[in-house]
Amino acid sequence: MFEIHAPAGIVIPTFVEIPFNSTSSFSSTTTTSASKITTPASSFSSTTTLKAATLSSKTPSTTITTITNATAVTPSITTATVSTTTTNTTTPTYPTTAVATTTTEKVTTKANEKVKVLSLHDFNNPATRPRFLAEMRESLIELGTFYIKDHGITTEMTAGAMKSIQDYFALPLEEKKKMLIGNSRHFRGYKLIGEEFTNNQVDHREQLQFGPEQSALSSFVPTQSPDYQGLQGPNQWPASTLALLPAFQPQVIEFMHQLETLSHRLMEAVALSLGQSAHYFRDLFGANPYYRLKAAKYPSVKNTKAATIGCGAHKDTGFLTVLLQDMVGGLQGQIPATGEWMDTRPVPETFIVTMGEAMERLTGGLYQATVHRVLNNTSGQDRYSIPFFFDPALDTRVPHQIENLDRSTRLDFSNAQTREELPKTDGENFCGLGITTQDNVSLPSTASASSSRQAAVDEEEGWCSGAHVFETVHRCHPEVYARWYTREE
Q1: What is the number of other CB atoms lying within 10 angstroms of the CB of residue 285?
Q2: In a 10 Å sphere around its CB, with 0-12 CB exposed, 13-18 middle and 19+ buried, how is residue 16 labelled?
Q3: Where would you find the membrane-spanning parts of this chain (predicted)?
Q4: CATH no. for residue 327?
Q5: Which domain holds residue 238?
Q6: Which of 73, 229, 348, 378 has the most crowded Cβ, counting Cβ within 10 A?
Q7: What total of structural domains would you count in the chain?
Q8: Successive 10-residue mean pLDDT values, the chain, 489 residues
């Protein structure tokens, strides 16, 4: 949903998640041209070598012609080199894995038989909690996704949020352009149809981006401060838009607040399903988690060749995605064990919950980050979806992997306790390790070019969540980076 994009007219290198085991070998290579793109790291000349990492050997083997020189680094992490021909193209050094793809098209129609529908009531009830956690663990090991019902967000709220988004997209184009994302240093606002790419395919959708309603950091200085500090700030709310849609702003803000509450609860369940304390992710995420809400409209099309695809195959890059979709359909997920695509059909009064690459990385590949895509919408009705991406506070240091993680298929959850059931402690710390997170604190000014020094810090202390988020959004919206981050204000 937020992976490797560029405006129309710019071709970017294809990134791939390489599905292979440590004994796989590859020999062929493909080169991809790219126009000039300004990105936040040092420049490379004619040839740029990019590395893609897969965190689990359980992904099905397929033939991918863009890979050479595959080498196993650890039993659970394998890397391969992808060579692409570029011109004045730079590549950030933030800790990410690359977008997944497959060369073999296999589709199953048994999606809703495979993806479990879990009830949050069962998690809240101590008597049914062990079963809930067992089913969650099984789902996240096998697929990386599930439906959640009885989630506490009313039908009136979800219907109101969906209507507000539909009303916005129905506005005249000139009105919507008043919220163009390029106007916002904080990557908030409207994106026209056909202006993003996923896996070198143009996405056929309009988009609208929101985040936490906060004041911008006055200490932020482009090219000197860490780039991710520029993410903090307000959303765009043009006065003329609010005059036309008076319920738009309060509906969106309240929906984000309720999704944040739900996401905290889901992450608490995820922590327990991993055999960790219920406090684990609350401590890690800090008092002010960073989140992004995206609203998307997929117009119905007749000429599917011209429209390419609704959204190309990819993994979300963060920790948790909670998705509200309408009843039109078109979302597909990929089964890791077989490579088959399954229709993730709409289920009334549920959200789809998906793990991202950060969770896959933190669990050493135990929990899957689901590869998914949106097919061309030929239903005759426009499709609307609202994904919510939930991540730690921007300055959080995320450990490379949970220590001593039990990788058994099944655990004993008979004594699992939620946060409110645990004894109260004096303050919460980072994963119980005594490392306190600091939310919304300006770090010492550091030029973006000091990537090698930052990489050394990342290796020792874990990786920076804000840098990881910024790498994602700047790839989606390079025009924002070019306008706001390449010169001092």
Answers
A1: 26
A2: buried
A3: none
A4: 2.60.120.330
A5: 107-484
A6: 229
A7: 1
A8: 40 33 31 33 28 34 32 31 32 34 52 85 98 98 97 97 98 98 97 79 88 96 96 98 98 98 98 97 95 95 70 91 95 92 94 97 96 88 96 96 94 94 60 32 35 51 94 90 84
